Amino acid sequence: MTSLSSRKICVITFAVASTLALSACQKPFGGDVRRADTSVNAIDGTGLSDIMLNAADPNEAVSYFMRASSENPDRIDLQRGLAMSFVRAGQNEAAVKTWKVVIAHEDATLDDRVDYADALIRTGDWKGAEAQLDSVPPTHETYKRYRLEAMVADSNQEWKNADSFYQTAVGLTTKPSGVLNNWGYSKLTRGDYKEAEKLFAQAITYDPSLFTAKNNLILARGAQGKYDLPVMEATQVERAQLLYTLGLAAVKAGDVTIGKGLIKEAIDTHPQHFEAAVRSLRALESNVSNL
Q: Can you spell out the DSSP letters for 184-219?
């Protein structure tokens, strides 16, 4: 990142120097006529917009795109960048408003409409998201489109459609861990614990660091009465948390003795004080069932 930044700074310095030199030579033929758009064009030339979207702090990116888009309100790429930055910063209501501006632009794309649907889902507007996705032609086959279609189908409890959309989405990406986790959670909520377990396990093979999938895997196994941790990559803290999850699942299933043992193991495994597990164990030992 340091060398990349250095190269970017060099390019900017060179570009500014060249512009000044050219301006000095050509002043009689136009002077500063083009100065008004120099800053934005120079920024675009260095790819700063991409850097702000992918590497910068989300709030810094919001500030940058707000300033740039206010100076150039007709630039859809800057409005798009602002909408994406709002999503990254967790400002979902603001993202929805900005995406609405983007899709009203004459140069708006189908991907913009899909991103608008994504922002609507983040605010809980499932019907609005569904309407946006319905307006996208079926020939627009992208990973994100089908992932969102699956989530909407889930919200409507249209399980057959959801499975079809999830399957399609998995086939359209080289990094399916997230969508596999979502699909597994869908199966979990339907009570299909065995299939959910398979999907969570697949998600972990693609991304061993995805703790959400690991925890969901334990929930699926616990629902089947499987009270042992499967073989998978996990830190000591993660292992303690997973044992705790499994212990709670056992207790809720009525297997209190097994649950207490798992919670004790979680406390012993955790490298630090595991307050949540300690409280639960004390509650169990005091015959308090409301965990």
A: HHHHHHHT-HHHHHHHHHHHHHH-TT-HHHHHHHHH
